[in-house]
Each structure stands twice: as C-alpha cells, then as structure tokens.
Amino acid sequence: MAVYDDLMGFQRETEALAQVAGRLGWDQETVMPRGAVEQRAEEMGAMESVLHARRTDPRVGDWLAGLEGEELDAVGAANLRHIRRSYDRATKVPADLAAQLARVTSRAQGIWAEARANDDVAHFLPILTEVVALRREEAAALADGGSLYDALLDGYEPDATSADIAAMFDRMRPRLVALRERVMGSERSPAGLTGRFDADTQLALSNNIAKVFGYDFNHGRIDKAVHPFSSGSGHDVRITTRVDEADPFNCLYSTIHEVGHACYEQGIDDAHLLTPLGAGVSMGVHESQSRIYENQLGRSQAFTGYLFNQMQDRFGHAGAADAQAFYAAVNRVHSGYIRTEADEVHYNLHIMMRFDLERALISGDLDVADLEAAWNSRFEADFGVAVDRPSNGVLQDVHWSVGLFGYFPTYSLGNVYAGCLNKALRADLPDLDGQLAEGDTSGATGWLRQNLQQYGGLYTPVEVVTKACGQAPTEAPLLDYLDAKFGALYGV
Amino acid sequence: MAVYDDLMGFQRETEALAQVAGRLGWDQETVMPRGAVEQRAEEMGAMESVLHARRTDPRVGDWLAGLEGEELDAVGAANLRHIRRSYDRATKVPADLAAQLARVTSRAQGIWAEARANDDVAHFLPILTEVVALRREEAAALADGGSLYDALLDGYEPDATSADIAAMFDRMRPRLVALRERVMGSERSPAGLTGRFDADTQLALSNNIAKVFGYDFNHGRIDKAVHPFSSGSGHDVRITTRVDEADPFNCLYSTIHEVGHACYEQGIDDAHLLTPLGAGVSMGVHESQSRIYENQLGRSQAFTGYLFNQMQDRFGHAGAADAQAFYAAVNRVHSGYIRTEADEVHYNLHIMMRFDLERALISGDLDVADLEAAWNSRFEADFGVAVDRPSNGVLQDVHWSVGLFGYFPTYSLGNVYAGCLNKALRADLPDLDGQLAEGDTSGATGWLRQNLQQYGGLYTPVEVVTKACGQAPTEAPLLDYLDAKFGALYGV
Question: Which of A19, A40, A43 would you mutate first to test chain B, the one with the most B CBs within 10 A?
Fold first, then answer.
C-alpha cells in the first residue's frame, strides 16, 4: 500500500528526530557545559519547531484521509491510531498558542526553581497564572466542548477520564487511610540505616543492580544527574541516578525505578523500532513498570535479603542489624512532606491531593491566588502535619510550572497497574520469592517483557494491562498487597 | 529590512539544527552505547535530510533574489555571501546524488576500517571506486565547466585553487627537502621520552594545559575518544583526547591542537552566534589555529621548558634528563609512515603527496586500481623508506573513504597561515618567549583572538589572515621558522 508506506516513511523520520530531541534533553541534564544554556534553548526550540511542523504537516492529513476505511493488520491499525491521535491533537492547537506555551513554560520553570530555592510563593504565582490560562486555552481547543481536564489528561494517558480516576480514588481512599492509621498507630517504629556509604561504591552497586534487573548496557548507560530520569527509546535508552552518602536507598531505588522505565523501552519488539509503536504506550503503563521493579520486586522481603548481603559485601556493613531490620528500613512509613520521598502507603495520598487541586485549577473552581492555602489545609487534613515551608509544600514539584496538568494521576494508575501485574506475575511464578532472594529477577522481568513490554504501543493502555493480567485492572490487588505487606511489617 | 530579517530568522534555526547534528556526532564518538549504531545512523540521516531540505528551501532562493542589489553593512553582506554560497552549492547537486553519496560514504567508512585492520587494500578498492565516481559527478555539478578538483576544494577552503596550491607547494618543496636532508644527515639523534606516565595524571595535566591555553570549560568539556576532535560552535565547543601511557605527547599535543580549534570557535564575537559568521571561516584558517597552538607555541623551547617542569611535578619525572633534552624529544624528526604522527619537517611532504594523488584520482589521470602502487613509489621517493604494509600506507587516512577529496591541502594552508601569524605575533609581542616560559599564553592567545578568531566568517580566509598579519600570506615565514628551529636543534 503506497499511501501507508509513504506515511510510515515520513513518520519514521519524525520518530528519529524525536529521539534526537530527547537525547538533547539528556545531554542538557548530564554533560552539557553550564554556559551553553541559552544556546541550547535555541537548539531545542529549533528541534521543537521542526517536530511541530512535521506533526501538523498537511501531507499527514492527506495520507490519513487516503487510508480511511482501508483494511490494515493489527500493527498497521495501531500505527494509524497513534498517528491520527498525534495529528489531531497537534492540529487542533493553534501554532501561536503552542509557541507561547513553550516560551512561557520555559520561563516558568526557571522562576519556579528560584521561588522554591527562596521559599517565595508570591514570586511564582504570576507566571503560574499565565501557565494555567494558556493550558486552559489549549484544553479548550482540544476538548471539543468536553472536559478541559480530560483533554489534558488524554495527552498522557489515552482514554483515561477524570471521572473514572476520581471514582477509583474514592474507592482507594478509605482503605489507604485506614492502613495509614493502623501503621502510624503501631508500636513498631523501624529505624533507618546508620553509617555512611561511599559514593563510588554506591554507583558500582547500583550499576550491578541495574544489570540484575535486566538493564542492557549495550543499549544504554547510567550517568549522574540532579534528578533521576530515563530517556530514549529503542536501542539507546539512558538513565540517570544520584548519590547521597548518608542514604544509599536514594541511589539504589531511584536506579531500580528508572531501570523499570528503561527496560520497558528496551523490551519493546524490535519490529516497532522508530515507529509509533516503538515506545511505552502511556505514562501510566510506563509508571507501572518503574513501580513494580522498584516496589513489588525491589522492596520485597526476598529481594531486600539479597540486597542486604550485597551491601554487607560492598560496604562492610548494610546499615542495619540484620536482613529483617534492613527490610523494615527499606519500607519505613513516615508522614513526610515530599511526594518523591513518600513510602508506598502515603504515595497515592499525595497524588489524590494534587489531582483534586489541579482539576480545580483547570476547571476554574480554584484560583491560583488561593492555591497555597488550599494545599496547606488539604495536606494537614490528609497527613496530620502542617506544611512548614512552601518548598516542602506547594512549590515542591516542577510539574505545574512546565504545564504538566493531568500528569499526576498517571503515577497512581502506574501503582494500580503494578498491583495487578504483581498479582498475575506471582500467580504464574509461584517461586518468585525464591528467585528474588537469590538476586535472580529474570523470571519476573522475563514475564513482564513477554506479557507487556514487548507490545509497546500495539494495544491501548487498559488493553495491554488487561491482556497481561487476564482481567481488567482494578485497585484491589494494590490495596490487598499494601495491607498484607505493611500489616505484617507493622504488626497491624 | 523585512526580507533580510526573514532570511536570517530562518537561517538562525538552520544553524541551531546544524549544532544539534554536530552534537549527535560528538555523542556517537564519546558516550553512545555501542548497540545504538544502527538507530543512530537513522537519526543522523533524518537530521541531514532536514538540513538538506532547509539549505535548498526555495524560500532561501526567493529571499536571496529579493535582496539582490540591496545595500547592506559588512555583517549583512558577509551573511548573504555565506548563505548564497551554501544555497548555490546545495541546489546544484541533485538530491538523489547527495543521498547516494551519503549512503555510499557511510558504507565505505566501515569497509575502509575493516580493510585497514586487515591490511587488505583489495577489500577497499571497489567501494573507493564508487566514492570517487560519485564525487566526480558531484564536482561536475558544482564546477560549471571548471576544474573538478577545485569545485571540491572550494567546499573546504573558499576561493582557494589547486593551481595556487600547486605553485605554493612547488616553492615549498625544495626548502623542505633540503632541510629534511640536513636534519636526517645530522649527527644529533635526540632520544624519545623514557618511562611510563599514568593515564589519569596525563588527563589531569592536559586539562590543566587546556586551561593554560585559554580553553573555556564553562562553554566546553574534554572527553576521551579513539580519535581526538573538536566539535561545536558558539557556547558549546567540546574536544576529545586520548591517552597512551608510554607516550604522553600523544595526549598533551593532541589536546593543545584541539584546544586551538576550540578556542577559535569560542573566540568568535558573540554577536555572530548561530549565524553563518559564527563558525571558523575555513578548514585552512581553522588548522592555522590548531597548528600555531600546537607547534609555534606548544612546541617552542620556551613553552616546553614550562611543560618539562609541570611533568616533573606531576609524574615525578619528565622522561628526559633536562629541559633541553625534553625540547629535543618533543621536536624529534623521523621518517615515519603515518601523517598524523609526522613532525613539523615532514608533515607538509605527506600532504603534497596526497594532494598530487587525489588530484589525479579526481581528474581521471590515476585509476583507483593503480593508487596503491602510486602511493608506495611516491612515498619511497619522498621519505626514503619503503611502505611496509597498507595500513602504514594508502589505507592510513579515513579521508578518501568518506569522500574528503580536496581536504588534505587545507592542512598545509593551516601550517602556512600559522607561520605567517607566528611571525606577526612575535613582532607585536617581543617578550612572547618570556611569557610562554612561565606558562602564560594569554599574550599569544589574546592576540590571536583579537586579530583573527573574533571575526569568525566576517572576512574571507585570505582576507582575515592578511588583516591579522598586515600582509598577504606566503609560505616564507613558515619555512624560515622551520629552518631556524630545526637548524638549531640539529646543528645544521
């Protein structure tokens, strides 16, 4: 089919250019000379402008129209679905608005960083007001009269709706709150690690743990960066990590988390390379992989037993008296301010709060001027602690500054999907804990690759999780897992 | 002027994209995971295709036509000169031919590497025949009935002609040959360095020497790579180096060489950032900077005295009995096979040979099948030694495999320009050696920046050298410098 081949040839080049733009981002966060910031902004802007022109190229519209009603195989149909979706979203937003959003969010990120460093909310609010207004405008262009928030959410999690997510959160909340109350009321209060852990040894160990989890260094690399991230698809999927000599879990578990993201990308069938199917299908499914690697596998009693021995070998001590104390330290529950440091019990409560606040901002029910007060009162209600300063509160996350409204709930979807996958995986691999205790994750990672990762964008997010689990995803397996794990750890 | 502004706005984005493509090349040679080679080829191809489309964009032709006869200031006129030149060259070559050249040279480079590794000339000749034929075809498209070779040369050194270069080589040759014979007949035979030099210490020292020569790490970085190179313009100019524990000069002088290239780029007036004037004006002028940093400054008796002390401090020994022996070791003359390892006396003889051979290939006077024999007989005549194997002979350079015909003479132009600049610099800075002996290059590098580097592409190559030196460049200062330096070193 000549039309399909033309479209895919064009798309392949677009996908390759998108990889280049992504690698430019990696470069900026890892190796770029400090003085290159302004020039880099122009380079990124030029790449974005090329990509935007290709995504809205009228030829794409013509090719899509020419393929209307054609019978395609599953791969062809999925490719068309992704291309049409991208084309529709890109062409609905006026070019001026897209350019203005890029400029304002780029500026806003810098202002947010200053505001956070100085705990100065007032410094951030004017530009955040601009960002919210522009994203509302963009959402209106995308929404066809529907929900503004859902139009944004759909950019990260195709087919998800805020109504479904709100209903899911309503079901999750009582059980999470009850578990939190039992744990916080427990007489057990596990200690954190003690001692210091040499930075280079941490990096060597985390590189090794990355290999243990199946990360392929022939198609990737690990570097240090201020914020851990994974970037790239196909044969060049790089991750970053960071090191704190007082807290080896920071390096180790952020590495395992990013390895989960990276293994998803590395695990996609090579047949999909540089096509719309050659990347993780949604933020939620992506997060399911990082979470299951980090939590259900990495923080399991079995695997922490292996890790305890590894740390003893490498550092001469593991910072805990025995493997059980080490396991308890890895999974310590505490009412912290910071989402990225939250334990598995608290994490989704952080997300629910952000979800409600950002929905209200986008709907217009909450004014940016009232955001800090809303944050602080909600945090105290949910976490039982008053926010002590804005950098521990409303200024902690970069997301809103760069316009990421509708992104936060995908973290919880990831947790929920990880819960479902963990249940199915354990049903298929009864000896999983025996393998993990030996530092052998190949059973688990092979299962995930086989049942989910290889498909890339071939199925929709819910389809692929359903296919892997044999049933539609619900929050129940995650909540059952949390109840069992933390009930046992805290004797509640 | 709206037309000029439109053209320059478009051009600025093109320049930014060219920087991105260049950085992708840097990434490939330094940090790219090995398994990403094939995907990277597609990414590079996509970037090249975007750049080619922009360079031949009909709007550029329209803008240029619209500016015909307009009065512009010097910067505007120079920008138009560069853009017209690039547009004319890009549009004269049929797109199919350009694409075929890209494909064939990409393949040829791999085949050349295999052939060199196995000393198997026959493996390389078929694809080299293809490359020569395609480059001849391209040259014919560019030459408008003129010299094919000059059309290729012009791509690296605007306004240069093979007739001028041949005449210059004819004038240089007798004096170089005479000097070579005197030196090779001398009873002095300086020793090389002895001992080993720790790799990390070499890298630390060469980083420091880079700083000494004014390399700005805020707008650059140094990494290891198989082949040293400099890449990027403006605020992000990176270099690479390599280390051999038995030969610290390899690391040190390749670093100084690349620092010369990089300082040229870093030294260009910021007003020219991301415009056609914001990069070195030609390969020859570029090489003049790397050569003067490396040779006339870096290998001077004064600077090697400083370096001798630095090496004693860092390694506990400098591999030579005293500073004089060290200076003689740095400048040791020997009849080696390899151009990149050649001393200052032999270097241009290597180039003359390649220049004659490649002109004959492009004119059709020499058949690819006869190239090895022609190389070997010419080498023995010029260097007094028979080539022992192809990797030390006709297979040593990558250039022809990637289609770089017309490039080699720019190395000698660089040497000649460096000779002229050195003479003018020393006339202006009588105490230069006193400064260099203290490890202070700021007088010299400041002079070069002020008199040449800052202009980027504002003047033509010959114009900018003439302006810096107060007279048109000739080969005489280089030959005088070589006679004086090596006459003294070898007592001849």
Answer: A43
Gap between the Cα atoms of B396 and B119, Å rounded = 10
For residue A165, CA distances in Å to A161, A162, A172, A400 come to 6, 5, 10, 19
Determine the distance in angstroms separating the CA of A295 from the nearest CA of chain B, rounded to an integer: 28
H, E, C per residue of B196-224: CCCHHHHHHHHHHHHHHCCCCHHHCCEEE
Domains of chain B with bracketed CATH? 2-146 (no CATH), 147-492 (1.10.1370.30)
Please report, as a single letter, which amino acid is at residue A47.
Answer: M
Categorise residue A232: left if φ over 0, alpha if ψ from -120 to 50, beta otherwise: left
Q: How far, in Å, CA of A281 to CA of B235, rounded? A: 37
Q: Chain A residues with CB-CB distance to B under 8 A?
A: 12-13, 16-17, 19-20, 23-24, 27, 31-36, 38-40, 42-43, 45-47, 49-50, 216-221, 234-236, 238, 273-274
Sheet with B230-231, edge to edge strand ranges? B222-224, B238-241, B230-231
- CA atoms of B205 and B439, how far apart (whole Å): 13
Judging by DSSP bridges, how do beta strands A222-224 and A238-241 pair with one another? parallel
Which amino acid, B309?
A: N
Query: Nearest residue on chain A to B46, judged by CA atoms?
Result: A13
**To the nearest whole angstrom, how far is the Cα of A25 from the nearest Cα of chain B?**
11
Q: Note the pLDDT tens digit of each residue in A35-88.
A: 999 999 999 999 999 999 999 999 999 999 999 999 999 999 999 999 999 999
Tokens 């709907």 map to which residue?
A: A363
Single-letter amino acid, residue B92: K
State yes or no: ipTM above 0.90.
Answer: yes
Each residue of A436-485: pLDDT tens digit? 999 999 999 999 999 999 999 999 999 999 999 999 999 999 999 999 99
Reported as a pLDDT band with limits 50, 70 and 90, residue B136 is very high
Whether B368 contacts B99, CB under 8 Å: no
Q: Secondary structure of chain A in the HEC alphabet?
A: CHHHHHHHHHHHHHHHHHHHHHHHHHHHHHCCCHHHHHHHHHHHHHHHHHHHHHHCCHHHHHHHHHCCCCCCCHHHHHHHHHHHHHHHHHHHCCHHHHHHHHHHHHHHHHHHHHHHHHCCHHHHHHHHHHHHHHHHHHHHHHHCCCCHHHHHHCCCCCCCCHHHHHHHHHHHHHHHHHHHHHHHCCCCCCCCCCCCCCHHHHHHHHHHHHHHCCCCHHHCCEEECCCCCEECCCCCCEEEECCCCCCHHHHHHHHHHHHHHHHHHHHCCHHHCCCCCCCCCCHHHHHHHHHHHHHHHCCCHHHHHHHHHHHHHHHCCCCCCCHHHHHHHHCCCCCCCCHHHCCCCCHHHHHHHHHHHHHHHHHCCCCHHHHHHHHHHHHHHHHCCCCCCHHHCCCCCCHHHHCCCCCCHHHHHHHHHHHHHHHHHHHHCCCHHHHHHCCCCHHHHHHHHHHCHHHCCCCCHHHHHHHHHCCCCCCHHHHHHHHHHHHHHHCC
Of A20, A234, A236, the CB nearest to B47: A20
| CA dist., res. A29 & res. A23, Å (int) | 10
Nearest CA in chain A to B235: A36
pLDDT at A1 over 80: no
Report the residue from B14, B42, B219 with minimal CB separation from A36.
Answer: B219
